[in-house]
Every structure is written in C-alpha cells, then in structure tokens.
Amino acid sequence: xxxxxxxxxxxxxxxxxxxxxxxxxxxxxxxxxxxxxxxxxxxxxxxxxxxxxxxxxxxxxxxxxxxxxxxxxxxxxxxxxxxxxxxxxxxxxxxxxxxxxx
Length: 102
Description:
Largest sheet: 4 strands, antiparallel
Helix content: 25-40%
Number of domains: 2
Number of helices: 1
Distance between the termini: 94 Å
Shape: rod-shaped
Order of helices and strands: HEEEE
Strand content: 25-35%
Mean pLDDT: 85
Structural class: alpha+beta
Low-confidence stretches: none
C-alpha cells in the first residue's frame, strides 16, 4: 500500500489548527481571569453617581445629547441660549457656549 502524502499533509494541517485553536482559547481564558482589564468586547458603561448641575434662576433645559463621555445641554435662560458641556461623573460644567444672534 502506498502512503498518500496529500492525506498525511491534510491531517497534519488540521491537527495544527486544532492545537492553535486550543492555545488561543487558553490565552483568552487566562487574560479574562487575570483582571488585566482586557476585554474582547470593549468596555462597559461606567457607573453613574448622582451629580447636581446648578442652573441660573429662570433657566430651563431645552435638550440634552451625549457624546464621547460628555453631556451637552441646551439651556434657555433670561440671558439667552447657551450650550453647556458637562462631565456626567461629577456634574462639573466643563464649558459654556453662548448662542447669540447677529
């Protein structure tokens, strides 16, 4: 009986793929359990504490959007309209953009 070299190479290649797959699974398990902060699926949303943002008297919130870990609030008050950029973790106002018409 003649040895079939193609079949031998196929079996060896599939065996190597199985070994590589098991090694990758082992590395993934070690990284997940090591507490290194590594995650295959990105980060989870941070926890949110209660934070207060003080508005001027007579001001009201027209709209809110979130972008890149910051909150942008459209504020309408007695002095005109403005957009506030707020840190959601602390409630600190990072900046204000006053909206004025010409």
